[in-house]
Amino acid sequence: MIVDNDNFDLVKGQIIQEIQQADFISFDLELTGIRGEYQDIFEEFPFERYLKLRRVSMKFNIIQVGLCMFKNNTAKAYTIYLFPQDQDEVIGLQVGAVNFNVDNGMDWNRWIRKGIGYVNEASFKKLYEGTQQVEQQEDYKQFYQTMKPNDKIQADKLTQDIDNFIKSQETEILIETKNGYQRKIVHSYIQQHQQVIKENRDGKMYLKKSNQDEIQQFAQQLQDKRDQKILDKTGFVQIWEKLIASKKTMVGHNCFGDIMFMYSHFIGCPPITYEQFKEEIHQRIPRIIDTKYVYQFSPSIKNIREMNDVNSSVENIYNILKSQNNSIDVQNNIDQHQYHDAGFDAYVTGYNYLNIVQNLSKEELSKQLNKLYLFKSNYCINLEGQDIKLNNIQFLVIKNIEQQNNKIIQQQNNKKKQPIFEKQDEIYQIFYKYHTNPKIIHNRYIYVEINNEQEFEKLHQELRNYQFDGKDIQVFNEKQYIHERRELREKDARLDKLEKR
Question: From CA 117, how far away is CA 426, in angstroms rounded?
């Protein structure tokens, strides 16, 4: 079911009830951009990937949130269009993502015209700060600023008369106005005064003191208006709060990026520290399953995995599982089977989980909990502790001589310029002795892997003794390199101007 501003008030109660009753909830997002400034590489650490995605999640926006609640092999899926209602919000669009969504039938008009409002937790709290009177005073002040000088003189006289009446013992006065604009001034000004109400009699405007019932009625009207204004801006917050409060298992597919966007747009500016992010997400969503991780690494479904050892997209996994003799039949409310519609993708993700989990023991399933797959990486994320290293490769990193103020030349390689050692052959001969191929990463370092521990120590020692133009070169082991990269990347993140959330 598609959900937008036209039907949100009608279906939100139903969605909340289904969240509370669900066995588990699957999710998916469609986004206006997903790529960072440079490609993912295997040599990145999880904290580097996090900081890159952190920036992406603050730069681009959510188009759709897909939620699918599963209960007793029945699925209720929703494609929820979201659009920020803050007039100062900046929308980020990435051409590749726009073209991808266009090719997959994205309804851009629905997104812009009918998208449900949302804010993050910090902005949500700010909406409740201050009193109703302050809000109304601000409304009049803004109106006053638009007046012409002569109109301001008349407005000052009218508002002074109103203030004098409020302070007086009189119960009613006649306000003399010459035109509709002056009556608008009076109407706007008295909105901030609960103790004054306006009456029109015989074509004239009267103000009178309010009794207690009228004051309460006026206060309720103000509160209703304020609440509606908040609801218009924060509609999806009502769903998000129930999701967090439910503590239900949340199921995504290759979902680290989706989780980053949910944090950035529904919680606040993601912290600089990767470990703090993991802790805060785990507090809010204590049970996350990534079906990409489960599919790739669960021993019990090796036979299923071998049927499709190349592509582990949500669509391919769905087709394989659906063809199994023991596949679970799921009743659903899907109107249209369209991949890259967030609601349908959420349903397919949940279907995959339901059919995978029947092959796993409780013990094996518990081992998959809160583990997130990382594309093109030697690591997977563990939200509850130390990340998972997929191999035991040992490596050394040499800080590029360019960073040590030594000479460097540029060599054309596939039409891309890469910095290399001026004495490339000399130092590379050291690497080749140990049957390893060095590569330049981040345009700053020379990276070399070596698996034999004895040879690793010999290479490390030889590099430490190597000099370039009479100077020692910097050689980092894994721990030293991580420390260097973390300091550099976190410093860049702190200087980033995108921390608007």
Answer: 61
Six-digit token string for 32: 């206006």
Q: What is the DSSP secondary structure assignment for residue 265, as one 8-state letter?
A: I
Q: Please give the chain's pLDDT, 501 residues, in tens.
A: 999 999 999 999 999 999 999 999 999 999 999 987 778 888 899 999 999 999 999 999 999 999 999 999 999 999 999 998 777 788 999 999 999 999 999 999 999 999 999 888 877 777 665 434 444 445 667 777 878 888 888 888 888 888 888 788 887 888 877 787 777 887 777 766 666 666 677 777 777 777 667 667 766 776 766 666 666 667 898 899 999 999 999 999 999 999 999 999 999 999 999 999 999 999 999 999 999 999 999 999 988 888 766 688 999 999 999 988 889 999 998 877 889 999 999 999 999 999 999 999 999 999 999 999 999 999 999 999 999 999 888 888 887 654 443 343 344 344 444 444 445 567 777 888 887 888 888 877 888 888 788 888 888 888 888 776 666 778 888 899 999 999 989 998 888 766 454
Phi, psi at residue 233, to the nearest 5°?
-85, -25
494 neighbors 272 (Cβ within 8 angstroms): yes
Structure tokens at 280: 């805060």
Structure-block tokens of residue 87: 């007039």
Provide the 8-state DSSP code for 273. S
Cβ neighbours of residue 257 under 8 Å, at least 6 residues apart? 29, 31, 34, 53, 56, 57
Tell me the pTM.
0.78
Q: 308 forms bridges with which residues in the sheet?
A: none
Among 469, 462, 474, residue whose Cα is nearest residue 406: 469
Is residue 283 within 8 Å of residue 244, measured between CB atoms?
no
Q: Show Cβ contacts of residue 349 under 8 Å, excluding neighbours closer than 6 positions.
A: 26, 27, 28, 68, 251, 252, 253, 291, 314
